[in-house]
Structures are given as structure tokens and as C-alpha cells.
Amino acid sequence: MSRSVSRSVSRAAASLGVEDVFGSMRRSSRAADDDEEALRWAALEKLPTYDRLRTTIMKNYNADSRNQDAFHKEVDVRKLGVDDKQQFIDKLFKVAEEDNERFLMKLRDRVDKVGITLPTVEVRYEHLTIEADCFIGDRALPTLPNTVRNIFESALSVFGISLAEKTRLTILKDASGIIKPSRMTLLLGPPSSGKTTLLLALAGKLDSSLKVCSNLQATFVDLIELLTELARREKDAGIFPEAEIDLFMKATSIEGVESSLFTDYTLRILGLDVCRDTIVGDDMIRGISGGQKKRVTTGEMIVGPCKTLFMDEISTGLDSSTTFQIVKCLQQIVHLTEGTLLMSLLQPAPETFDLFDDIILLSEGRIVYHGPRVHIVEFFESCGFKCPERKGTADFLQEVTSRKDQEQYWADKSREYRYISVTEFANRFKRFHVGLRLENEVAVPYDKTRSHDAALVFKKYLVPKMDLLKASFDKEWLLIQRNSFVYIFKTVQIIIVAIIAATVFLRTELNTNTENDGGVYVGALLFAMVINMFNGFAELSMTIQRLPVFYKQRDLLFHPPWTFTLPNFLLRVPISFVETTVWMVVTYYTIGFAPEGSRFFKQFLLIFLIQQMAAGVFRLISGVCRTMIIANTGGALVLLLVFLLGGFILPKNEIPNWWEWGYWVSPLTYGYNALAVNELYAPRWMNKLGSDNTTRLGLAVLKNLDIYQNQNWVWIGAAALFGFAVLLNILFTFSLMYLNREMALQRMSSRGLSRNEDARLEAAAGIFVEQVIELVELDDLKDAIVGLPGVSGLSTEQRKRLTIAVELLLLMKRGGQVIYSGPLGNNSHKVIEYFEVIPGVPKIKEKYNPATWMLEVSSVAAERRLGMDFAEHYRSSALHQRNQALVKELSIPPAGAKDLYFATEYSQPTWGQFKSCLWKQWVSYWRSPDYNLVRYFFTLAAALMVGTIFWKVGTKRNSSTDLSVIIGAMYSAVLFVGINNCSTVQPIVAVERTVFYRERAAGMYSAIPYALSQVFVEIPYVLVQTTYYTLIVYAMVCFEWTAAKFFWFFFVTFFSFLYFTYYGMMTVSITPNQQVAAIFAAAFYSLFNLFSGFFIPKPKIPKWWIWYYYICPVAWTVYGLIVSQYGDVTDTITVPGMSTKPTIKWYVKNHYGYESDFMAPVAVVLVGFTVFFAFLYAYCLKTLNFQTR
Length: 1189
Fold this sequence. Notes:
Structural class: alpha/beta
Protein name: ABC transporter domain-containing protein
Strand order of the largest sheet: 7-8-5-9-10
Radius of gyration: 37 Å
Keywords: ATP-binding, Membrane, Nucleotide-binding, Repeat, Transmembrane, Transmembrane helix, Transport
GO molecular function: ABC-type transporter activity; ATP binding; ATP hydrolysis activity
Pfam families: ABC2_membrane, ABC2_membrane_7, ABC_tran, ABC_trans_N, PDR_assoc
Family: Belongs to the ABC transporter superfamily. ABCG family. PDR (TC 3.A.1.205) subfamily.
Helix content: 55-70%
């Protein structure tokens, strides 16, 4: 393309009689520069339309030249380099808030010159009424009993039975209006007036549970291929556009380029270019500031092609100056590009309020006013209310409809004040001239002939899907790099576990002579499968952490769901390959599996596919459950199902008929069969005979374990695992495609329970504080209770002034440099005088907030415009000298003065802190149905599952196989509920820890009382959980009904559940975040499995690892369960390879190594583990701090 442009330029130069225009000839005059640009444009005009729309002229500067000579070059907008884009942005937007308006005006002028009308959107709504059925009073609180009632009543409502007593709440009442294009519309109203509901209704994002009655309509006026039409008309008129405007329009219109230059432009105008490569951050990690986070959200809205914006409270967390700058930027975009905008703000500053063209005032769900801003004060004056001097109009509008604040604005003091209700205001507005005009406009149907025939034909995704997929791959790779610690941690973890497994099943200790030897090798294979299954558990937290951002981008049509899931799956395949390689290299030879290359690679393939299948399982769980607590529970439930029915805990022929389907749908069935067949069909097993001297040893082992005796099962298993991996990832994609974000059940965090108790704004000592209180007009309220927002105490407007009073004591600029510190003066006149004497600083306008004005005139943009540094100006001022002298004077303590001393660090003794924290935790847990109700549901489901799968196996004790099945039942019963307790408590503790860091920093309480309260509050909930779980399992499995045996079963189960819960709390306290805690915990789940005494009995554990058996809590749980139930049973059983029938008591002691009289030490150890994990949690919480803010 560049060669064709050059040839065209040469021909154009020849036709003009100019030789070698673009050669070595250089001119410094403006005329020569214009000639060169004109020739370039003439050359571009001769290109085919397709090429012309993708090529433009860019002005560059010769960096080597002393005079920075400019030269023009033609560029393909699809191939703009990073330096080109940055140079373009830096040149056009040096001072963003000023240069942006000039740029947009040039862009609009280009369109207007050729008579093109920009596309517009007008939004109409008529008789919009929105209602909700809700509970009132205590019934509305999200307590455990209320949540259970809600679930029960919802289930009955499916069958048409309605027991719930709900109240119909009307949120919006008969609202009508028009949001017009090219006008800024501000939505005002006190809290709970229905602003957010109106915005959601107009955006089509209302909750499905709300009842909506309305006529919503969006009408369009559009032109197709605007840029093509613009280029054609300019060519016909002989108009050459400005190079910068042409480059911007082409670069942001061509597919695949828009996301780049327009993103850079948005970052600059929102002031986010300074932090473009900074992580957003969260409660634990320092990232961008709160104000920058709000601007990121705003940028996400305007960076796309959407011309209709509904924005809710974008000013929260921003100072008034920044809010003004952002709204000013949006005003320029709306006015000059014919956009449509409706924005709600809570009491905007006067200068921000004046940027809007129209106002919608909502109160109690009714529209009090909807029309031009310039007439709103007139309307209320016609109703008898006047906005006072030095009172912002927005503040006046927020309060004039309030029964509490309305009287102060009554204008005619000669007449008795009468409260005007919201309904009366709304009726008066309908008779006001603005209301009459609005009613007439709404009554007239929109003229659809003004809409273009193809106006409603829009592409769902403006960027080609392959480009979206590439961008998603780039994003996924970037996230993997940023989370490299997690993947390195997982790899190191699997190396450590592989070394442990290899040394437990060491080849020098293993034989290949008997069926028992084969069983040990199968145990090693089974452990490998379990480890690599648990390896995918980390996908839960990592996926759920990203879902909120995904749902937001999906709903805004940033990309289709499959472009998110495909890179997520494919880029983790190499990581899984590395982990599989590590596992196989460390374990295969060391354990001594079949020494054949083909069997090594088959086992490698199977382990790799098990990892892929496991990752798919946990991704699907995260996509369906969508919250961490529910997903952990769902994950544990799925694990319990696939483990119990995988054929290794309960052999296939022992599975009840009603659960046989579960055997075939469990992925572990295929992995277990394939791994065992691959090993036991090796020549070293098939060349020997079993104990019956007839059957091949390998086949005998397979028969004993009820595994299919067909070597094709290696490939059957591999194919099934591959199919599961693909299917599960497809289902994960569908879950993200069709399920909406989970609205988690309400949880009462400790965050707000101790902050709003009789807070008082008292008159502090010192004239300066008195001046600040006078400045914000809080003289009469200095002893008032602040109270709860929207409930009691100060009004919203008064709270805002209180915030200003607290914060505006010192004026600083970015970087922490002071630019003013001194007295305010009456009506802030001293501060105003200080800045107004600086040459070039504009005078403050009438009704302008002094605080906002100070921030505006001292901004970075103002410094660039004035060519000065306000910090330097302050340091060289007489005011700074006086302050320095005052600091020096006050730094010398007077004679006889003593340092401040407090007898205790905290206001309450340790016992008082503990009682307060325990009360807070109790209320928090009682109102946490998403935690406690979910784990109770899981426990019930697990109990019923274990009971039905191991139905009456307690009565079957005729052989060692029967005993193994019973032990598997007890082992599974406790292990999976314990793991669920551990997993579900982690997100709770992780959230509470961030609150604890903040409250400890505020000196509210110390770590030990807080940690002990968290420990003690779990006990009653675990006690209830254990009670019904034990009753169900004990009865359905049919253990022996004696008081002592039932008590010991209950005791062991209770403390096992409790130590698992405290273990989960402890893992959070020693790790930086929940994701690492989940990975750390999962690693020890595997070790708990290995040394529990189930996979490998205690006597078979190598002597160098027996110490870990004694520090493995699950080993003591299994010990206690077996001994309490079977340690004293003298019934005989059959054991393969033994001619005599030993008693169960003898077999338990000699095969498993369990002493029947050892229950007391077992009980002590279980209590000890519980206390140890609780102590470690408290100690680590006290000594470790992972917050990097």
C-alpha cells in the first residue's frame, strides 16, 4: 500500500510541476509544509476506497534535527506502533480537560462541513411503575431461620402454595419522561427514592423478581458507514481534513484498531494514563486509589461504541474537583457527539450541577420534576420555597421534599408554613409549564420515519471474534505471568508430594510376588490419581475471583464467553504438562512401576488427562455455583460422589443398585481402571501365578479389586477422561453463557457494627477548627449525633459538609506536597485571597464551593497553564515562613510538661474485648446463611449419600474385604465433611481478616480476643452439624447400637469436624490470600489421605515416615473410629491367604496396628489437634500481617 501511495504522490507532484517533493528537499516555511501535506492528501484521494479508509497522514518530527523539523508520512491505521499512538496522544491532549473539548469540536466541525447528521438515541418511558414483594421487620433479616423459611416457602410456591406474608412495596410510581440526545440529564433524589431502580429499568437490567408495568422505548436515528460517507462527501467538495482528526476517526472506526487508540484516549482524558500498568488492588493489596477505581469504571462505560449511558453515583470516593473534571469530559462527549446520558449524583457541587442541561428529581418513587435545569428553581419558587444564598441548588433540591428539612426553605415568612408532600409536588409539576410540555411530548408518538431503515441492525461484537480471541489469549497470558507465584507454588508443592509418595512406596520395600503386593502398587496408583485430582482444586478460587469482572464484560458485550474459557483452558495445558512431567519423573522409577517405556507413557497420558478432567470439574463447579462458599461446598460434594462411587473405596459389586449409575458417571472410575490395568498387565505380573496357582497374578489382583480384566481399558479410560475434560469445559462455557452472577445471600459483616455508636462532632479546641465548622455551616449541629446514614442523625447533605469539615484542614497536591496551610478566614476569604493574588488564577464565581475552587485552580492542568509549581510558590511565601516559625516554637515543650501516658493500649480490658468480639461474631454468624446454611445442607447431603451408598454395611463383617469397606465408609464419612468445613471457612476468615486489620489499626481490640471469639463461635454450629450427621450415618450404616460406641463415634466425629474447621482458619492466617490458602490446604489433604492408614496400613508405612503418621490428624480420626466400633469384636472373618479365621479384634491389631485399649490417648490427641490449630490461628493472626496497603 505504501508503494502505491508513493507512486500516486509522485504522479501528483509531476502534475503540479514539482520535482522530488518527498526527497532530500526540506523547507522550513509554513507554505512548503502545507504543500507537502496537500500532495499527500491528493495522493490518498486516488487510492481505492478500501485502502483510503485505512490510510491517513501523520505528522512527525525529526528528532535529529536541531529545529525539530516536521515531516509527513502516510500510515496504515491498523498498524500504528506504540510510539506513534503515544506521540499522537501526547501531542493532542497535553492538558486533557482543555484539549479534549477543542479536539471534539474539530471532529464535529469536520462532520458538519459536509452536512452529515450524527446518529442519536432518544429514550422514552411512560407510566413506569415498579413494585417488589418484600418482608418487613425482623422477618426481612437474613438470619438462619428466616432463610430456611424462605427456601421452604419458595419450594411450596412452585406447587401454587403461598405461605409467605409479604408486603407490596412500590419503588417507582407512574413515571414518564424523555431522555433526549445531546443533552446531559442529572438524576437527583434522596436515598431510597428509586434512582438506581430507574437507571436499571431504562438499561434493561432490572432484577427479574421485580414487577414492572411500563412502556419503554428507544428510538434511533442512524446512518450506515459514516466514515465512508464522510470520505465521499469530502472528496466531492475538495475538502482536506486535519491529519489528527482523520487519523483518530479512522483508527477508532476500523475493526481491530478501535480498542487500542480509543483506550489510550480514554485513559488520558480520565487521568488514568499515569496508572495504566498498575494493578487495581483490593483490601489486601495496594493498587490504584479509590478515585481512580471509580474512573476505571467510568472509562469502561465510555470506551466502547455505546452512545447511551446510564451512570449511577460515579462520584462516590472522588473529590469535587475530580468529579467536575469527569462530568465536564462527559459533557463534551455528549454535546459534540450527540450522545444520550442519564447520570445520578449525590449532591453534586454547584459547578458540577451547572454542567447538566436537564434535571430529573425523584422522591419517594415519584418524579417531582423532569425538565431543563434553568427552570427547576422557578418551579419550587412557584410552590413557595426558595433556595437561600450560599446554598447549592443540588443540596436544596435534595432537602426541599423532606419533611424534616423542608420548613427552612419556606419563602413567605408572613404566611404560616404548610408541609407540601411529594405527591402534591408531583401534581403541581404536571400543571407547571415544563410539565405540560413534557406531557405533550410524551403523548405524541415518535416519528419512526426519521429512523434509518437499518438503524436497529447492529453487530453484537464490533471487533472480529478472532481478534477478541487473540486479545483474550494475551490477557490470560498476562494474568498467568502476574500470578506466576501461584503456579510456581503448585509445581513446588507437587514436587514435594511426589517425593513423599516415592519414599513411602519405595521400590526397595515393595515386592511383586502376591496379591497383597499388587494391592500396594494399586494403592500407589490410587494415591497418584487422588493427588492429581486435588491438584485442580485451586481452579475454584482462581476462577470465582475473576467472575465479577467477566460478568460485567459479558453483559457489556466486550466478548463472547467462549473467548474467555478457551484461553483459560488451553494456556493451562502446558502448565499441566509440566506438573505431570514432574510427577512422573519423580515417582515412576522410584516407586518401581512396570519397567517398560510404553507403560510409562501410557501412565503419563492418564495422569495428564486426570489433571485436565479435574480442572474441568472445578471450573464447571465455579461457573455453576458462582460464590466461593457455595462452590467449595459443591466441590466437596462432587468429590465425595466421584470418590465413593469410583470403585476403589467401595468395589463395584458392593455398590447398591440405586447408585450403580454413579459408578459409570464418575470420571475416577475410568482413571482407576485404566491405571490399574496398565500396571498389572505388565509381564512381571502376568508371568507369575496367584495364590490359587491357576490365575495369573495380575489378573488375580484385578479380580480381588473388582477391576475389569481387559487391557483395552487403558485406552477406554484415556478416551473417557479426554471426553470428560472436553465436556466439562464445554459445560463451563455454557454456564458462563446462560447463568447470571450469583446474588449472594446477605451477610452482616463486622465492618459496620462498631462504627456508628453515638458518634459526636464536638467543638474542638482551637480557633481553626471553629472556623472550619463555621465554613461548612455546622455551628448549630456541632453537638449533634451523626447517627446511621438514612436512618437517624445528620441528613445526607449535612454529612457531606461534615466530611469536608474533617478533611479540608490541609491542601496538598499529588505527590504529598503542601500547597497551602493556614487560616481560612470568614467565608474562607483568606484562602481565596491567597490564590487570587497569583497571576492567572481566575476569580471565584458566585455560589462556588471554596473547597472545590481551591482544588480546581491548583490542579495539575492549572500548573501547566500558568507555568508554575504551587508547592514551590507556597514554600517561598511568607505564610510558609510563619508556619515554620510556629512549628519550631510549638516543638519546644513548656516547663513542667509531661508526655501523654495511657495505662492500657486499648479502651477495654482483654475480657471486655473478648465479650464484644464474641457478640459481634455471634451476630455475624447468625446472619450468615450463605455460610452456615450451605455447610449444613452439604452435611445433610453427605450424610444421606454415605448412608445410602454404605447401606447396612455395618452388619456385614464376614471377610477382610467387608471390614475394608466399613473402614472406607468411616474414613469417607468424616474426611469429606471435614474438608468441606475447611474450605468453606476460608473465604469467611479471609474477608474478616481485612476488617480485623483495619479495626486493629484503629486500636479497637487486640488480635487474641478477636481470634478466640472466632474460634469459640464455631463450636455450637459444629456441634449441631455433628449431631444430625452422626445420627443419620450411624443409623443407616447400621453400626452397633450401644451407648459407649455411639458416644465415641460422636466424640471422634465432633472433634474431627472442629479441627478441620480450625485448620482452614489456620491456613488463611499463614498465607497472603485465599487462593494460596486453598492450594496450601489441598496439599495437606493429600498427605492426610496418604498417612490416614486407609491407603497404606500403619504397619506397612516405612519406618522413616512413621513419624508423620503420628502427627497426621486424620490417622487418629480413623484410629478412633475403627477401635471404638471393632476393637472389642471377637467375631471371626475370612482373610485371603490365611487358612484360619482370625477374630476382628486380632485382625484390627495385626493388620492395621490399632490397639483396642488406646481410646483414651486417641481422645486426648484429637482434642490436642483442635487446640493446636486454634492456637496457631490466633498466633499467626497476631504476628503475621499480609496487608500491603
